[in-house]
Amino acid sequence: xxxxxxxxxxxxxxxxVLVVGILVWRTIAxxxxxxGLAPARPQVVRIQVITAxxxxxxxxxxxxxxxxxxxxxxxxxxEVEITPMDGLAALGKWERNDFGALxxxxxxxxxxxxKLEALESFPTAWIADGRFLVEIANAxxxxxxxxxxxxxxxxxxxxxxxxxxxxxxLFRSRGAPLxxxxxxxxxxxxxxxAVAPTGWKELGGDPGWGNFKLAVNPVGESVGGLAAIVxxxxxxxxxxxILVEDVVDPQFDTWLTELxxxxxxxxxxxxxxxxxxxxxxxxxGDGGQFLESDLLQNMEGIQNRWQEPVLLYYPKxxxxxxxxxxxxxxxxxxxxxxxxxxxxxxxxxxxGQQRSALEFGLRPAESGLQVSxxxxxxxxxxxxxxxxxxxxxxxxxxxxxxxxxxxxxxRQEMNEKR
Length: 418
Description:
CATH topology of the largest domain: D-Maltodextrin-Binding Protein, domain 2
Number of domains: 2
Radius of gyration: 29 Å
Distance between the termini: 105 Å
Number of helices: 17
Mean pLDDT: 88
Strand order of the largest sheet: 2-3-1-4-11-5
CATH architecture of the largest domain: 3-Layer(aba) Sandwich
Strand content: 5-15%
Helix content: 40-55%
Largest sheet: 6 strands, mixed
C-alpha cells in the first residue's frame, strides 16, 4: 500500500515538473523572440538584376533612386543590384547554367549549407535586349529542367520596359556626297561604298578621307551586331522573314563579307558602335547602323569632340528591342526576392521612370507617352538631326530565333578562322 502511494506521488510529481518545464520554456522562448534572440526574417532582401547594356545607364539610375526610398518587401528593406551584361553573354550563361540553377530532381531543403549560400548570388531577374533572347533561354530550360523559368503570363510575367530600334547614322559631311551619288541610306548603298576601289575619291567626297569605313556593332559580340546581319539579309533577299539557308547562302556570304570588310576591327574599350564613333570619330566609321538610344546618348560627345553631327535616318523596315523585365520563377530565389523584383519592375514602369527613360534616348513602353514628354528628352534635344517622334511599325524585321542565332554565330566563328 505504501509502495503504491509512493509510486502515485512520484508520477504526479513528474507530471508537475513536465508542465512547469513547458511553461518555463514557453516563457523563455517568448522573451527570446522579444529580445531578438529567436530566428527572425531577414532585414534586407537583395536582388540581382542582369541588365542589357543599352539600358544599363537608365536602369542603374532608377535602381539608385529606388534604393534611396527604402522600399520594403515583407517588412525587409529591398536592395537592388544591377549587373550590366551583353545579351549574348547573358544568354550563354543561362544556357550553360553558369548561374547554378537546380536540377529538376533536386529539392531546396536537401541542399547543404554551402549550396544554399551559393544561391544568394543567383540572379532574381533579367532585363534582356529583347523578348526573343528570353524565349531562347526558356527553350534551353525546357530541355534541361523540363519547364520555363521566365513566364509569359501570371503575376511574374515578363513585361517590356522601353523600346529602341536600329537606325542609320552618318556624319553630315559623309552622308551628303554618298546619298547624292549612290542613293538613300540602305545596306545596298553602304555595300557600294564599301567596295569602291578608290574610296571617297569616287564617292564624291574628299580623297583624303580614304576608303569608306562602316560603323556597326561587333557582329559576334553583341545582339545589335547580329541583328544588323539579319536586317542586311532582309534587304538582300527582300523579305522580313529570314531563314537559316539564307544566311548561309554563298552569294549572300560573299556580299556580306565585302560589306563587313569596311568595318574597322577595333573597339578601343567602347561598348557600342556609337560610343566608338564618339571616341574615335571617322576612324571608327563614316557612318552605319546604330541603336537609336546609343546614338542619342553619344550625340553630344560626337559633336563636342569632332565638331560635326551625325544625322539620323530611319529604315523602311524596322528592327526593335523591347528590353523585357523577366523574373526568375524557380526555387533558387525566395518569394521575398520575387516580390522585390516585382516592386522594382513596377517602379521602372511608373510614369516618372518612363519619362526618365527619354533622357537616355529610350522610347517609353507606354505608347501614350510622347518622346517630348520629359524636359531632358534626348529626342527633343536632337530633333534637328533627324529624330522622328513616331516611327512606323508596319514593316518589322523578324526577331532572332534559336536556329538563326546558332547559324549566325557559326558563320562568325568560321570567318574568324579564315
